[in-house]
Amino acid sequence: MFVNTFYFQPADCDSLKKFKDRIDIEYHSRSVGYYHLPNSEFKVIEDVKDWQNSLENIDSVVIVGVGGSSLGAKAVSTMLTCDKKFGTPNLFFLENIDPISINATLAKLKFSKTLFLLISKSGTTLDTVSIAKIIMERFKVYPENKEFKEHFAVITDKNSALCEFANEYGLKAFFISQNVGGRFSVLSATGLVPLTLCGFNTEALLEGAAKCKSDFFEKGDMTIIQKAYTYVNGEENINVLFSYSNAFKAFNEWYIQLWAESLGKKKGGKNIGLTPIGLIGAIDQHSFLQLIIDGPKDKSVTFIRIKEMKGDMSIPNFSLKHLEKADLKSSISAAKLLNEQALATMKSVIDSGITTDEITLDKLDAYHTGYLIYYYELLTSTCGIMLGIDSYNQPGVEIGKKILIKKLGKYVNAAKKL
Amino acid sequence: MFVNTFYFQPADCDSLKKFKDRIDIEYHSRSVGYYHLPNSEFKVIEDVKDWQNSLENIDSVVIVGVGGSSLGAKAVSTMLTCDKKFGTPNLFFLENIDPISINATLAKLKFSKTLFLLISKSGTTLDTVSIAKIIMERFKVYPENKEFKEHFAVITDKNSALCEFANEYGLKAFFISQNVGGRFSVLSATGLVPLTLCGFNTEALLEGAAKCKSDFFEKGDMTIIQKAYTYVNGEENINVLFSYSNAFKAFNEWYIQLWAESLGKKKGGKNIGLTPIGLIGAIDQHSFLQLIIDGPKDKSVTFIRIKEMKGDMSIPNFSLKHLEKADLKSSISAAKLLNEQALATMKSVIDSGITTDEITLDKLDAYHTGYLIYYYELLTSTCGIMLGIDSYNQPGVEIGKKILIKKLGKYVNAAKKL
């Protein structure tokens, strides 16, 4: 079960119906592709499984991709570490043109047992192609070599440059629909291919997302619309996600990209947007919490917690001499203490007059993960519609790219032909 | 070399002298202990090295501690991964009462080769003591057992409950001065003990910090004061650290704790504070950057980049068929491309009218790391003085703790005596 509880007074549902109508229009227009992924993408999973039978001896899958091409799979795989099937390949990420992290990751890989997934919607992301070249040079395997196509595959838009590259050299290619934006693409091939290869239950992931889709579009659950309305119209312009478990670390990063890149936009010369912050509980009770409680009242907080956690253990009910102050009334489990910490912190936040809500997941499995992901995608789209902006573009990041191209001569093809 | 360049008009130094005087008073009062650590703590390193000779066969050191007890060592060890001496123990962290992360970490350890450092200033941090009990139960080694003192040590305040516990069972104990706050304690035993044990050059770390101290207190460098003044008096209430390299991930977390917990305070009934955000370049150019450029103008940005990076590699100067758009003018290194990305992004941020500055480190070694850490500690203290708040307490987080105690009965000693 997925439950979102508000500790604020939400707007009346009737007054918000007009926003639901607008989302319905966007949904039915099919201009925004991610809405439909929970139903359309089971065939990708089948395709991966068929293909996987032909892959021999692969124990490592490496995503070479940045932003929306890597964050989704990272979020899901980190949340579902406990659910990974034994003996399936490990998942790695090359997402930064940073020699320190590239060396650290490559040192862990044996080329003969590794599959590199080059992921880029446009197909010519500078960092991604540059890292791919470094990999080829490091292992001395180039597109002309026989083993190349056994160790490289691509995920991209149909007809992109990367798709043509794959065709040229006979690489396996998976496709993202043109109308699915990078940061909304985790439930497309972008996420499903690596996650399926690495033994995660991607069918259940899609099923969870499909349940959220049906709750929203068919059953008319207004929770997301009420929450978005509170965010868009409240005084607070910072939205904190306080996620209780280290397993949410990459999910927080995924949320930050989704929220920041979708909702930070210019509109008629005005700069608008909501600022995302991701925290991990209980750790950040000893860090950011002080600022939430005593700092400026510019933040809303959403607590996420998991009721039953895999591998939960008892905190032994013995007392250590001189440390009796840290004893508990009775023996409880670690997950119980973590949940109680979340509840106590949440109460202190609510009592400080901060706009607060709480998401509880019965457990952290693929189904609940799919639900949560789709929920946040819908929430983002709804906020975008209420703000009157285009949530699916990112014009602001193009300026820096142009400056870089001018300096480094991208598009000036002076490189040696292989 | 450490250089901080402003791309904004700072206030005139003469007008800021009064703030320098106030910091000097705080410094000379010796009420705030961290100021003096770069000179006083070399003896801790010697003590660790002497003790280490008596430790047999340890290949893993585990920090059991939360917030200020873990974030500093995590920041430094992550920054200096490339500098770690071969054959020295690996460093692990148990910082969350989260069964998923506890199981994942404990599964990597062999008890007979592991040293657990229980770190808590107060000595009775609930999470830390609870995790310690879980460790004891998991490995069936309790304080009464002979091998206990070979595998557990403590870092705490003198005379704390944890200190008494150590005395009771003959554990090695290292001490943090009473006047050194947790989040300012990385250059005390809190950070120096684990980092020295794991083969990091902690002498150079202190030397770098001592250089920053001398630049500020003796040579009268006003950069920090100018920067703090701009932050405290500017329109922006969010301070973004955009750090170029995955190596800065934990440093960003450390910065967030330092900034948020020190500068988010109530003052005369008013809620004041500055909100920290940590980003990693180039990754977050594909995430948060859009919001910085097109979103509300409520953010300042500091870029941190490393000029020369260890293990740097060339991006091969060949062209891949159909991917020619991602070719570069000439063969450059990964670090060069990363730096050029930082510069291009920085220019786009400056051109958007955002308060921007840039820190360049010649390289990422222990010396520069020590300088950077002390620099940010001084910057935090200076902002606190300008805001007229106490940067060294955290009253806001006590409310949640009290609620938890009420519920779980901490202080109600119902546990079995061992």
Characterise this structure.
- 2 copies of one chain form a homodimer.
- Chain A has 2 domains: 2-27 and 205-315 and 329-395, Rossmann fold (3-Layer(aba) Sandwich), CATH 3.40.50; 33-200, Glucose-6-phosphate isomerase like protein, domain 1 (Rossmann fold, 3-Layer(aba) Sandwich).
- Helix content of chain A is 44%, strand content 18%.
- The first copy, chain A, has helices at residues 13-29, 37-40, 42-52, 71-79, 99-106, 126-139, 148-151, 161-169, 189-197, 202-218, 223-233, 249-263, 289-294, 334-351, 366-387, 398-408, and strands spanning 2-6, 60-64, 90-94, 114-119, 152-157, 172-176, 238-244, 265-267, 270-272, 275-281, 299-308, 318-319, 356-363, 416-417.
- A 5-stranded mixed beta sheet of chain A has the order 1-13-11-7-10, sandwiched between helices. In chain A, strands 3-2-4-5-6 form a 5-stranded parallel beta sheet, sandwiched between helices.
- The longest helix of chain A is centred in the last third of the chain and has 22 residues, at 366-387.
- The N and C termini of chain A lie far apart (54 Å).
- Strand 12 of chain A pairs parallel with strand 14 (416-417) of chain B, so a sheet runs across the interface.
